[in-house]
């Protein structure tokens, strides 16, 4: 099902499609994070990624809960946007030999992922409210808050030492 198929006619259809999109994305992120954990040298960055991997597993369960609440089976549809961000992460991090520069690159990639997730969850919360599903909105909001906190944590790590060490 693509964005321009007749399967998506209503805001409700679009909401479900976007849930399927982010469900796919979160699952891809759980596969990408272990590689990022393995490549990170800074212990705080490594443990930050580990923490976010376990949060991401919880976010997948939350999405499954929202699917059920909204009367749908959890299902994933390919999200080319997250595939592109992850592919770029792998390509760039595969080229960098210097560990400190690699850490800076990993943070930048992780923030691209977080920003993608923030835009998706922000939209899903708004649409859930519009559809009268405040129950779904509040579950999705918990994940949105986690993604924002992760993004802020990454900014703090980059600003406080990782970018300076890489320079
Ligand atoms: Fe996530
Ligand atoms: Fe995330």
From TrEMBL:
This is Ferritin-like domain-containing protein. It comes from Methylobacterium marchantiae. SUPFAM superfamilies: Ferritin-like (SSF47240). Pfam families: DUF892. Gene3D superfamilies: 1.20.1260.10.
